[in-house]
Amino acid sequence: MGDNIYLPQLARIAHIKEEVGGERAIKTFRLEFENGGGFEHACGQCAMLSIFGRGESMISIASAPHIKDYKQFSIMRVGRVTAAFHELAVGDVVGIRGPYGNSFPVDAWRGKNLVFIGGGCGLAPIWPVIQTAVAQRGNFGEITVFYGGRSPRDIMYQAELEKLRGAVDVHLSVDKQEEGWNAFCGFVPANLMDKEPSPDNAIAITCGPPIMIKYVIENLRQLGFKDNQIYTTIENKMKCGVGKCGRCNVGKDYVCVKGPVYCWDDLKGLPAEY
Amino acid sequence: MEAILDKKNLNDWIAALDGWDAYAPALEDGVWSYRPASANAALAHPNTVQPPKGFAFPQREIFFRFEQIKGEAPRLTPVQPEPGRRVVFGVRPCDGRAVPRMDRVFADHVDDGYYRARRKDLAYVGLACHKPQSRHCFCKSVGGSPVSTEGLDVLLTDLGERYFALAVTDVGKALMQAGGALFAKAGASERKAVEQAHAAAVAQPQRGVADAAAAPAALKAGFDSPLWEELAQGCIGCGICTFLCPTCHCFDINDEVTGAAPLKGQRVRTWDTCQFPDFTMHSSGHNPRDTLGSRLRQRVSHKFRYFHENFGMLQCTGCGRCVSQCPVGIDIVQVVNRVAGSI
Ligand SMILES: Cc1cc2nc3c(=O)[nH]c(=O)nc-3n(C[C@H](O)[C@H](O)[C@H](O)COP(=O)(O)OP(=O)(O)OC[C@H]3O[C@@H](n4cnc5c(N)ncnc54)[C@H](O)[C@@H]3O)c2cc1C
Ligand code: SF4
Ligand code: FES
Questions:
Q1: Chain A residues touching residue B298 (CB < 8 angstroms)
Q2: What is the mean pLDDT of chain B?
């Protein structure tokens, strides 16, 4: 990247997986840097991906930092750039610059129980944390993952979630009951109240649509989680990623630099403009 | 370094600035704008409609060009700002004070190479104000002054037939030295005259923000005030207030396609504004600032609160453009005073 902070590196799509179909489809892309490029990242950081002629989108890096050969991104098709990503094939070359933002303080959580609560596309930003915790299983206490989608077809990372079982407690949910669904039926915050994870020596990490996060945090506090035990990410619109374009501004913070990871203790002091 | 420049020598000084492209305010179609200095430039202008911010941060700038033959990897060609030293004459002190504020933004966290490349070769020769340039000026109330040197390399003060020139920076000193014998030594009487002129300028009455020092805390306390929506009524969301602001720095990044096979185009940065609803609207339709009041609050709070929380100074320099040029008369001074006065 050198002196030109807006010039992306090039990366080739090595693998594409269709996670979720339908109108707001999600695909997971594995990107390998071209020309010996690359960068290190920490759990929770993002990258600005681009398709030349279409534009850029900020996307969470969904692979764990210890994976060096590629970086993985799960992209929901919502608009101009993301739809163009869904048209790409293995071998296509895209732009990537980053990493941007702060990260989850995973090392500081050693010895603690971790409760992950994700919804929709919100499993992607916390996936590197889950992967890191599982890779260092002995360093952490109980690990619990709550995750929900609208229907069974909206559950991303299905096979990977199943593989976690044993090392991790996995509680899936769908919004509405459907034939063949044996796990919880209802919204993610309700599933949380149904299982009542203990706040003792625990950290809760939640990510998903703003409305889900709002109710998850309310419920976590009801369960006895203190504000400094709750972490989330916020996703304001971003353009530059380097604290200059003003897009992601919330109060005094440029979320692309000070976020996207926030402890609720800090976030509650910012204007609720996210 | 202080010296005296006869007004009739101004153009010779500009001509003597070897290696510098000079710009000065010119009246074109009834609008004062910065233009390449003519051979008979005179500094007799009210403040320009556009501030000089575009010299360091142009309204539109190409980051790189891309070209891609179908099935092949794209080729990227970075575009760097054209090199060359530029000196801008006649910058009013409020616009001078905007310069270090913009410098902070573009150097904070990581350095923006495009801004730096332009800025390092830019000099500002300011012109002190004897009286407010318009009834909208309020520089004094936001920590500035009609004779402030902040952000300038040279400050000129009009003493009738002559300018009193004060070098503020080393670059300013070099500019004055390049004028050689065009400059005369400043004597005691000229020093006295400039002191008097400055004192008289500072004594000129201005409207203003009632208590700028208290504004950051007051706007924090007044965040949920119903006044924001009330005062924003009528805003047509044009963004003029921000585009003409000397310290507004928000921008957009977009791809412009100029050819299809092979794909050709460029990635460009353009000024943007927090006053447009889609500035913050997520693709889902969710908009964190979905009302006129929330967007007015963002603009005013950024100037008078958030910037102060980050950098310890107000971002507003009191030039008054957002007040004089707003098509519906929304007045930042009144907004700050009303919200701060209500808590
Ligand atoms: C920190 C962070 C992490 C994120 N992580 C993820 C993730 O892991 N996965 C994921 O799927 N999403 C993620 N997102 C959300 C993602 O960034 C947005 O969904 C995405 O940028 C939407 O881009 P789009 O072009 O598809 O949408 P659009 O709504 O189409 O457009 C967004 C921008 O594109 C431009 N644009 C759109 N249409 C046009 C047009 N017709 N002409 C010109 N310009 C146009 C505009 O400038 C607009 O601002 C994340 C966001 C943030 C901030
Ligand atoms: S100039 Fe006036 S009308 Fe236009 S966006 Fe600013 S406040 Fe609103
Ligand atoms: S994305 Fe530009 S300031 Fe955060």
A1: 249, 273
A2: 96
CA–CA separation, A153 vs A163, rounded Å?
A: 18
B330 lines ligand 2 (CB under 6 A): yes
Which CATH code, of 3.30.950.30, 2.40.30.10, 3.30.70.890, 3.40.50.10860, is assigned to A9-100? 2.40.30.10
For testing contact with chain A, the best of B75, B104, B224, B280 (most A CBs within 10 A): B280
Answer whether residue B293 shows pLDDT above 80. Answer: yes
Q: Which residues of chain A neighbour B310 with C-beta distances below 8 Å? A: 252
Query: Does any CB of chain A come closer than 8 Å to the CB of residue B113?
Result: yes
Q: What is the pTM of this model?
A: 0.94
Distance between CA B334 and CA B331 in Å, rounded? 5
Residue B288's pLDDT band, with cuts at 50, 70 and 90, is: very high
C-beta of residue A154 within 8 angstroms of C-beta of residue A129: no
Asked if pLDDT for residue A132 goes beyond 60, the answer is yes
Q: How far is B139 from chain A (nearest CA, A)?
A: 23
Residue of minimum CA distance from atom 3 in ligand 3: A243
Rg (CA), chain A: 18
Domains A9-100 and A106-233 share a fold: no
Would the CB atoms of B74 and A210 count as touching at under 8 Å?
no
Chain segment B108-162, per-residue pLDDT in tens: 889 999 999 999 999 999 999 999 999 999 999 999 999 999 999 999 999 999 9
CATH of A106-233, one of 3.40.50.80, 3.30.420.40, 3.90.1230.10, 3.90.180.10: 3.40.50.80
- Closest Cα to residue A235, out of A198, A194, A193, A207? A207
For residue B298 the two structure tokens come to: 């963002």
Mean pLDDT, range A42-64, rounded to an integer? 97
Domain boundaries, chain A: 9-100, 106-233
**Given B64, B73, B110, which is nearest A242 (Cβ)?**
B110
C-beta of A54 in contact with ligand 3 (< 6 A): no
Whether residue A1 is predicted with pLDDT greater than 80 in this model: the reply is no
DSSP state of B305: I
Residue A177: burial class (beta carbons within 10 Å; 0-12, 13-18, 19+): exposed
Give the residue, B38 or A62, on which the prediction is more confident. Answer: A62
